[in-house]
From TrEMBL, chains A, B:
Keywords for this protein: Isoprene biosynthesis, Nucleotidyltransferase, Transferase
Site residues by UniProt (Transition state stabilizer): R25, K32
E.C. designation(s): 2.7.7.60
Gene3D superfamilies linked: Spore Coat Polysaccharide Biosynthesis Protein SpsA, Chain A (3.90.550.10)
Sample GO molecular function, one term: 2-C-methyl-D-erythritol 4-phosphate cytidylyltransferase activity
Reaction equation(s) it catalyzes: 2-C-methyl-D-erythritol 4-phosphate + CTP + H(+) = 4-CDP-2-C-methyl-D-erythritol + diphosphate
Domain of life of the organism encoding this protein: Bacteria
Pathway where this protein functions: Isoprenoid biosynthesis; isopentenyl diphosphate biosynthesis via DXP pathway; isopentenyl diphosphate from 1-deoxy-D-xylulose 5-phosphate: step 2/6
Name under which the protein is recorded: 2-C-methyl-D-erythritol 4-phosphate cytidylyltransferase
Gene name, Swiss-Prot/TrEMBL: ispD
Length: 266, 266
């Protein structure tokens, strides 16, 4: 696969922030994207991560009807310069990705554009993780942030009304998928086109679409971290608050160092 | 496989608490088993969980030389009635399990005994998880506590100096192994005997020994929970403290209900 213009400066880097999920495991009456952690709604944490990355050129936010207006107001209030559109998503996660890909195609985005698909429920994605994804897409057509599993993973099968262990993959080869998951635009589009013909298609993960339908395209692993956690249930909120406090402190320390440095430069 | 006396009352239920690990990912100078969380060393939390379960008949604690005396003093100070021995473990986790199995064989433990192997770095194992393991061993010869993975799991392979995704198992069949992992004594002994002949044998997980060497013995999954976390690095301590506080509150509430109930009974 050839990329016409592979230099970072001329290739668009488009972040797709998925914020359409209902969060059945959270609270049906309170969309988790809008829950505030350290004075900032989860979806704002997520959008900001990409807004602040100098290599990201454009952001699409995929929303549901239920959160459309609230997120629209947040985007307006924060005056994000890169958010191009709030886009209506679908019922399943894959419907939302498909809607975003269709909009990008309509907008004439080139095939070699780097598309970073991010789950808005992972508010603490780091700049290193985003950069790692963009870098890996210089060499690969697909890459995903993932964290080595500290627990041994068990793959199971049904046994009566129970699950029983089928196999135990080696721990050093077991990773927990996080996001962003990055793809050259033509790669993820092709994978979704192939998948569209499959009636059993209902992936919970975009990487899976490439692995299953384009098995010859290697998907690179980009080093993630436990801080890039997903808020799934209310039980995740105390941990999310702890991480948010650490992130805020780290940013303040960095800003201080930068200020001292600038002052020293006169 | 037949069990001569399968009733709960006559079959020994032996907990093996593994506390010999060095914890390279924690702090080589401070054994994590001895770190105090809510006024209690981690290893004490773990031993107490089994001491308090009325169905557990005996406890073996596997230690290293470095922590032998400290854990010995804790066991003495707490006057645990079920702790039969502090046993010297080995360098690898599997060496420690093997040492425990050898001691049980020497002590004449019957083949149908239920052996629950627990990682002392999981201090907040619940009574439901221990009971679930004991119950499952009424029907199966092996069972492990495990938690459904909320993250999609990626299985990788080497690609140059990177990891690349090889396959993406279905999320509903992806579990994170926890402990206790329970086995009929004759089953785990046989699996370890077979494994001993394999020079490449270095499992990080006892369930894996059964799955790999006794593939016809189904290993049942017992419902675990995120609270049954493993303390691996210092970054895990804030979460561990949060869970400890919840556990303490829950126990106090239970004790209060029990007191009110007893009072009402006169």
């Amino acid at each position: 696969m050839k990329h016409a213009s592979a230099s970072v400066q001329t290739t668009p880097v488009i972040a797709v922030v998925l914020a359409a999920g209902v969060g059945h495991r959270f609270d049906p009456d309170q969309p988790k994207q809008l829950v505030t952690i350290e004075d900032k709604p989860i979806v704002v944490w997520s959008i900001e991560a990409f807004e602040q990355n100098p290599r990201v050129t454009d952001i699409l936010v995929v929303v549901s009807e239920a959160v459309h207006d609230a997120i629209g107001e947040l985007v307006e209030a924060n005056r994000y310069s890169k958010v191009r559109a709030l886009l209506q998503g679908g019922k399943e996660r894959s419907d939302s990705t498909e809607a975003a890909l269709a909009m990008l195609a309509k907008a004439g985005v080139p095939g070699n554009a780097k598309v970073l698909i991010h789950d808005s429920a992972r508010p603490f994605v780091s700049q290193e993780e985003i950069d790692g994804c963009i870098d890996a897409l210089g060499e690969f057509t697909a890459a995903t942030v993932a964290c080595p599993s500290t627990d041994t993973i068990l793959l199971t099968g049904d046994l009566g009304d129970r699950q029983a262990v089928r196999s135990v993959p080696e721990r050093r080869h077991s990773f927990r998928a996080q996001t962003p998951q990055g793809f050259r635009f033509e790669t993820i589009r092709k994978a979704y086109d192939l998948a569209a013909d499959d009636p059993d298609f209902r992936p919970t993960d975009d990487t899976r679409v490439v692995v299953d339908y384009l098995p010859d395209e290697p998907v690179a692993i980009v080093a993630g971290s436990p801080s890039n956690m997903k808020v799934t249930t209310k039980d995740d909120l105390p941990m999310a608050r702890l991480i948010a406090q650490t992130v805020v402190k780290r940013r303040e320390a960095k800003a201080k160092v930068r200020a001292i440095f600038n002052q020293a430069l006169g």
